[in-house]
């Protein structure tokens, strides 16, 4: 019996094991697939070998350790010196062939920088910064150059800008015309930090430019392109060449790795170039000095806007037919005078013929409809209750979050000029729950009555409620204001912080000092010509930056550069650290402008 029981138990255990196997086979699961491949492809051989000399023919072939593909090859690849015609890039298996259409120049070192154009087939891992160097002569050029490019106005790194080097070997084209007409001899691209470097350069002096090349043709020929230039010729420094002769065989994997290691070591040497040798160039966009009317348009009923390229105060805009007195034209310039606003009484004229003139530089005529275009309605829209109350003269105030900043006057900005101001006995101000009925005194704050300020002394640590009855302000469009109800507080002095900045100059130029708040909005601005301590009082708590502009021509604004006139953009400096202003605190800082 014991023997029978044992055999029976073995049978059933075997049966259950087989059954489990069958169940697992009947319910397949997704395989895990292993770890994600994050290893970039690697060049294992090439013909000719990297860093070869005495190269003949017009093609190079590079073989990788895995299948690869090309990503934005024409945008990523930089060839120095640039050929007249882009080469052909062809992939077959694991081998990339670069075939030059033009004959290669004799005794010339060529550098092919692939950027991140070579990626593996499965995970798109890029072979970053891969460079192939060869010479059609008996030696490799071995000079190097390094630097950084930044935007002149805000000192931010200029990423993906092209750095261009020109040899002064052209007798037919003036040096100043090179970036307009000729492709450079060497090209590099800046990285995210605005840094660039050249390797394998000739031992020669170069003219240097930087372009934000919008059409990638290495020519300064597009509106909106930015430029930087060196005031003097630049000369690279010597870095010991990685290979003195073509001693590596194309099929030697270990030797190719050795070549890549040598190239990396050369890059490391370049990274140690002293700061005194590195170049820094300021990228700027030139101002087009040609005046131009950019657009003339009806913004809304009774408002015509003229937008110009430059300051337009010397431009004459006149109607070609007499305007009726009821047209009530009110012209108004924007803060920087490049936009002219015409406010007028609507429904007087359907259209207007205008003459626009500026000496002999601008002479144009326009015929403008004064009826705003009505947007096509795709479906019938049921008006809201708020839309049924009628139209009123609209306004905004300088209160933010029910708060009026200390020492500020309360200002009302209307959407049309106010042509009539009428007092009403029911106007009142409630101060800390104390109601005062009074005649409110408003003062015009601009030339045409778009902005009015209330003549009232608002005290700190106080709450105010303001009620202005309807029909106090009449706009040019014939609409009155609705009842105005406004509540706000004026903070206490202890809600603010103060900054005392001692400003020192190594020289005594004209300086524009700016205190920048969030998103680099200018909070305070000062015009200085001597060393002094600036008292910035009643600042809202928050983080700030200090910016100094060397106002070269003392016109109280930052000026860009001009390449043909050899004018660099005005110098900009930022204080070394961000300032955090706290409530009820005084802060003292010193800044030496070098």
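^ structure tokens above, recovered residues below v
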């Amino acid at each position: 019996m014991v023997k029978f029981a044992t055999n029976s138990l073995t049978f059933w255990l075997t049966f259950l094991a087989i059954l489990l196997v069958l169940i697992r086979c009947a319910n397949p699961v997704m395989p895990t697939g292993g770890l994600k491949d994050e290893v970039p492809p690697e060049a294992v051989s090439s013909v000719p070998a990297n860093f070869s000399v005495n190269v003949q023919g017009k093609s190079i072939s590079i073989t990788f350790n895995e299948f690869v593909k090309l990503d934005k090859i024409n945008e990523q690849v930089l060839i120095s010196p640039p050929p007249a015609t882009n080469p052909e890039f062809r992939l077959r298996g694991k081998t990339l062939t670069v075939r030059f259409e033009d004959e290669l120049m004799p005794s010339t070192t060529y550098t092919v920088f692939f950027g991140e154009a070579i990626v593996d087939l499965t995970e798109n891992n890029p072979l970053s910064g891969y460079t192939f160097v060869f010479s059609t002569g008996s030696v490799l050029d071995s000079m190097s150059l390094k630097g950084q490019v930044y935007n002149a106005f805000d000192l931010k790194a200029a990423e993906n800008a092209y750095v261009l080097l020109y040899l002064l070997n052209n007798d037919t084209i003036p040096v100043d015309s090179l970036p307009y007409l000729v492709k450079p001899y060497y090209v590099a691209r800046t990285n995210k930090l605005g840094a660039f470097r050249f390797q394998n350069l000739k031992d020669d002096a170069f003219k240097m430019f930087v372009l934000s090349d919008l059409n990638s043709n290495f020519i300064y020929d597009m509106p909106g392109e930015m430029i930087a230039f060196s005031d003097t010729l630049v000369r690279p420094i010597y870095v010991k060449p990685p290979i003195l002769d073509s001693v590596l065989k194309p099929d030697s994997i270990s030797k190719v790795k050795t070549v890549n290691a040598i190239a990396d070591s050369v890059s490391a040497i370049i990274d140690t170039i002293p700061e005194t040798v590195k170049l820094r160039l300021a990228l700027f966009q030139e101002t087009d000095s040609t005046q131009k009317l950019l657009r003339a348009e009806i913004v809304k009923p009774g408002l015509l806007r003229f937008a110009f390229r430059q300051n337009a105060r010397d431009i004459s805009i006149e109607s070609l037919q007499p305007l009726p007195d009821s047209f009530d034209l009110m012209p108004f310039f924007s803060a920087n005078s490049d936009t002219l606003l015409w406010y007028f009484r609507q429904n007087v004229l359907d259209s207007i013929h205008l003459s626009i003139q500026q000496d002999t530089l601008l002479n144009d005529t326009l015929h403008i409809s004064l009826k705003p275009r009505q947007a096509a309605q795709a479906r019938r829209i049921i008006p809201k209750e708020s839309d049924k109350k009628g139209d009123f003269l609209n306004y905004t105030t300088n209160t933010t979050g029910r708060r009026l900043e200390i020492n500020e006057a309360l200002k009302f900005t209307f959407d049309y000029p106010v042509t009539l101001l009428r007092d009403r006995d029911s106007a009142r101000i409630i101060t800390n729950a104390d109601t005062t009925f009074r005649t409110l005194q408003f003062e015009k704050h601009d030339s045409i009555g778009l902005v009015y300020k209330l003549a009232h002394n608002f005290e700190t640590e106080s709450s105010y409620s303001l009620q202005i009855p309807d029909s106090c302000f009449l706009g040019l469009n014939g609409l009155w204001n609705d009842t105005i109800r406004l509540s706000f507080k004026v903070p206490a002095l202890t809600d603010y912080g103060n900054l005392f900045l001692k400003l020192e100059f190594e020289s005594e130029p004209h300086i524009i000092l700016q205190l920048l708040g969030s998103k680099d909005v200018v909070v305070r601005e000062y015009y200085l010509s001597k060393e002094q301590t600036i008292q910035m009082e009643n600042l809202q708590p928050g983080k700030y930056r200090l910016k100094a502009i060397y106002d070269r021509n003392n016109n109280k604004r930052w000026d860009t550069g001009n390449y043909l006139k050899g004018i660099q953009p005005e110098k900009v400096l930022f204080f070394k650290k961000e300032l955090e202003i706290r409530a009820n605190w005084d802060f003292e800082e010193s800044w030496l402008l070098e």
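The chain has four helices and 42 strands.
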